[in-house]
Batch of 2 targets.
Target 1
Amino acid sequence: MKRNRYYLLVLSIVFGLFSCKNESKNDLALNSKNSTENSSIESKVEALLNKMTLEEKVGQMNQYTGFWDVTGPTPKEGNQALKYEHLKKGLVGSMINVTGSKNVRAVQKIAVEESRLGIPLIIGFDVIHGFKTLSPIPLAESASWDMDAIELSAKVAAKEAAASGINWTFAPMVDVSRDARWGRVMEGAGEDAYLGSKIATARVHGFQGADLSSKETIAACAKHFAAYGFAESGKDYNTVDIGTSTLYNVIFPPFIAAKNAGVRTFMNSFNEINGIPATGSAFLQREILKKQWGFDGFIVSDWGSINEMVAHRQAKNGKEATEIAANAGSDMDMESHLYVSELVNLVNEGKVKESVIDDAVRRILRVKFELGLFENPYKYCDEAYEKDVVGSKEINEAVLDVAKKSIVLLKNENNVLPLKKEGQKIALIGALADDKTSPLGNWRIGAEDGTAVSVLEGMQKYKGNTLFFEKGAEFVSGETVFAKELNINVSDKSEFIKATAIAKKADVVVMVLGEHGYQSGEGRSRSSLGLPGVQQELLEAVYKANSNIVLVLNNGRPLAVTWADEHIPAIVEAWQLGTQSGNAIAQVLYGDYNPSGKLPMTFPRSVGQVPIYYNVKSTGRPNMPAPGEVFWSHYSDITNKPLYPFGYGLSYTTFSYTDINVKNVKDNSFEISVTLTNTGNVTGKEVAQLYLKDDYASVTRPVKELKGFELVKLNPNESKTITFLLTENELGFYNNQGDFIVESGDFTVFVGGDSEAELTTKFELK
Ligand code: NOJ
């Protein structure tokens, strides 16, 4: 048992400490500006709060979704009429799903010009990976491991959304998940808390910039607090039951990173966690987030999640759910319509203190002031500016850049890739190859159908080859409308023959297979992880006709493509890459862009291995004691190894790692250096990764954990010494009391191009 070297008792001290250490220029700029502006914002908030009636305060905590065509006739009936009346009475603090500067102006006008105090609305929208012009889905972007590209992607998304009247996005989703069955893995940064924290920071900086009141930035929202990604059996909204160690070491870090990056809002989550619905959890919202972490923005519920506490059977009815949620620190009600109907009574009955309401309203008004909405409520409503910005060249270039960087080369036997640019006959096969909607992914409510560049279109730009195209089989039939189940083709193979015919006459076959954009996302969990429908059979049929295949995967989650890995010479993971999808894929296939992406999530061999992740615990029986032994932690019908490990990805060049050294630079800080060399023939980028193992600890630690990475570009034969710094932040962990501790003892380091890195060294923390 080791001695605690540094036992940091008070969490808030730790967060304070770390937030200073981790502050980037962006944070500092924001903070110094804030320090002068804060006091004036605070006094304005107080002055306004003093003028508000209880009803008006509660109104600020109420959010409605867009409820009628604001440019058309005023709704006269039912729910819609009621919402309209509420808006005029100042009983609505926020609206979502109202887009376009003209429509936003119309609702803002009612709030500002018709309500008693004229408090502007904060207009929210799910700007998840772009607004109208889409970047890759967040999981794909995370595969770039390129924080500048990810920040830029969020920045242009914010610019386009803000130009369309939006002031607030419900992103980034920072839920760690280890379960590829869960449909929402597409929206996150994958399985790792360290990588997830860096990405959370980049995305918050991208959306919010250094000045929230700028016309080009929007408030971000770290969601879903907390542990939504740990739904049992990967089924969306399902129960979450996890221990303290996982909560503190795996779930919380990306939320802390988002908070430290200055995120202005949090969203709670649909799930219960250890018996308490997150929306009604005072521990998560009041104790951890607001008290210990010192978060001074506001928390919005998830859609209807206050009311869902009744279905969870924690609250008997909506009124009780309201009481629990408000007291637990849920500041704004998204679409439960309960705060607006119940909170005033609950205050009058003494069940919710008015100070709870005041605290929530202060937080909401603070963010509205920071956005500059009081100075000019219509600053985001400039139609001419909107026309210039939406779909601009600058935005399309940025999304193309991040799309290329998100592609992961999984296999490239015999250098099938890159394709030759001339004199080749290429057979392009697969319904996804000419699909202009699916690459937009699931979260594309601001975009138009059919606006993605398809792979077919991208490849047609390379005119030196002869290109044949066949779908081989329809993928889905019927409408692909949001919120409807997809009708996947599981039986019609009548067109296979056309596909095999073009394969036979081709030098190389490119097959674009995988998941439709609507097969992942909210409510879209899967119990199998293979190629859906008849696609596996199509792949095998084409393989018989011509085995020289490049398989391009389009998908929103890791897939168990084990047969393909065993048979197909080249595999490219191209996810759902957004508006510029086909251009990015073609440039990679033709070698105009050398892929450098690395997987942010482990790919399983079979769904039975899920949840599968690299930073597992050792267990008491980690290894086979002798050949044929049974009593160790394994499956009897499949290896423990994944299909592709976390951090994995190839390039058109090769890299070597040599000369690992460790230096104790100062107390509790170690520098690990390694030489990285481009050993191939073309210039390429590599994500050098450092994994740390705390050899023995008072609470068991994972077999290894990512604690550093660097994206390095090298010419052929060029070498570079890379240095990683390990400080207490990386060496310590949270114990089961939720305290961050650093223990003395031995540590092992691994450096390499993925989580199975073998170059290793050791050091002792005295
Ligand atoms: C429900 C989702 O869980 C959440 O992430 C999203 O932001 C809201 N709906 C609003 O659309």
Target 2
Amino acid sequence: MSDIVSVREEKTKHIVKVENDKPKSVVKAALIGNPNCGKTTLFNQLTGSNQYVGNWPGVTVEHKAGRVRNWKTPIDVIDLPGIYSFSPYSPEEVITRNYLEQEKPDIVINIIDATNIERNLYLTTQLLELDYKVIIALNMMDILMKKGKKLDYKKLEKEIGVKIIPISASKALGINELLEEISKENNRLRGKKNFYSDNIEASIKKIEKVLSYKRNNIDNLRFKAIKVFEKDALILSELKLSSGEEVAINEIRNEIKTTKNRDYEIIIADERYKYICKICSECIMWDKEDDKESISDKIDRIFTGKFTAIPMFLVMMFAIFFITFGPIGNFLKQAVENFMANNVLASAEYYLNMFSASDWTKSLVLDAIIGGTGAVLSFLPQVILLFTLLSILEDSGYMARAAFVMDKLLRKIGLSGKAFVPLLMGFGCSVPAVLGTRILENKKDKNLTIFLIPFMSCSAKMPLYFLFASAFFPNNQTIAIFSLYLLGIVGAIFSAFLFKDTLFKGQESPFVMELPTYKLPSRKNLLLHIWDRVRDFLERAGTVILGATIIIWFLQSFNLHLQFTMDKSESILAVFGSIIAPIFTLCGFGNWQSAVSLLTGLIAKESIVSTLCVLYNAQGTAELGNIILNLFSPMSAYAFMVFVLLYTPCVAAVSAIHKELKSWKLTIISIIYQLFIAWFASALVYQFGTLFSKIFI
Ligand code: GDP
Ligand code: MG
């Protein structure tokens, strides 16, 4: 009996062993570098995937892994968030550091932006100190070549002791050479570790001795000794120094202090930069004076200038709105609407009549499916326009400037400039915007930003704004819509003041964000970005909105006895809607149809339009526009838009909010707050509006 067991054990041991061996043949390569140095571009190039590449720091917030395609040996690459150093302050640094410590990749590919080599090497010195096996991918070589600048990378290689492969991730140059180096095991080197002048080096050695006196086998002893010298809080709490050790280490530090009376972290950083400057001066073979005022700097003098920055920003934003919501956008929308009415609807009607379909089939297909979903689809051109323009601004590098410019303003409401990025994304869709708050370092910044994102009017609300603005304010459409967006921003500012020292107390974090150089947006990236949004829009139209439309159609076509009825006021929906409608009497739209459409808006905001379409039996938005003219006054129409602008976002956004806030309490506060403020603002607009118009008109 026991024999059988042991044989079995032997066998399973063997199997386990084989399985353990297997992953070893796969090389794990982690991509590490500063933000914006081209990690994701290289990752996409290697794995053939389509990760979104953005021209601002902080696009990659979680790590993504993929297998290199078309290569002789299996290599897994991991795209990690960009970092400037290894002092764990930002979530990016924490994610990257944890990944390296826990997953222990076989090799670190340190990507260096060759146009910005000094700053990028700072991280390299830390990687080498941490004792990783490193290969350097010297990226953006195409830019250097184009400018005719030369870099003696062989000399650099000798100096720091690891392999350097010049590449261009976006032009796919040097990729095979890089893979070749990754595959060769004996080319994975650990490189140089001593970057300091003699007296600092001596202090580090002494601290190493103090640390290892009572502890055995500290891994990365040298790195920790340096961090102890710097007084790095995290490492200090990890090591739990005894008071004796602290005294000894303080003495060692004090020896330095007599010569350089400064912060210890700065002393180390300073030493590193001195070293980097020295080796760079030997390797860089162009006149540094040439770099001084580039075209980028000249443009920046306007875009980030003291007096020009804010006006430029407003002009840009207004231009985007004018193109999207003004004549061009309207023309395109008309074209789609005409196509829907003249071709799609007409031929559907023709075929339904040909097969003599029943009344309710006709109603389902024409009113609900084509009418409702079609009404939402006709906004596709404007969605495309808006996102094309925003992506161009983003890819060109302008958005990062805008964040920089906004920092001062955002500080006043308790946020840092970095929060601008997710807030701006909120104008597209709250879901990615909320997820995007992961780039924010501290919890206060993050939670407050999540609370404010719903105030940034998302693109799903556009259809409703168009519909109402073109019906009620035909001559001032752009202004009417722009005013709503502004009102949203005002609401956000108001809420920030309300919450910044109450619900979300805490320290603000400094603004660290590099300004990328201006680039012509790449067509591929642009298309990818736009396609992402369009696909999302179409998917929603085809799934959630279609579903909601059909349900609404059903509820409004059948009465409580489940009989098909043409009289909508008898329908299930009317009964239900009439119960909640009185809530909105003060806001000026206390009819059951508006109440119901607002309810379906919780599923998806576009549904408000499609629901109204179904409820009023309208074919296309033009007809719906005429119908609502008789149901709302301009004042109640604007109050309705205000309510839609401010009330609780759709379920997808709420679930993202809950996921990121990690608290039911805060999520529920956020929902109730939005509902309340929407109702309050809308009632205020309606009541004061009517009062004023009675007095003055
Ligand atoms: P990450 O933040 O490190 O992931 O950087 P990304 O991959 O998002 O790239 C940042 C920007 O640099 C994008 O606009 C890329 O198109 C651009 N880029 C990346 N690699 C190269 C390159 O080799 N040459 C040039 N000219 N641009 C590049
Ligand atoms: Mg990236």
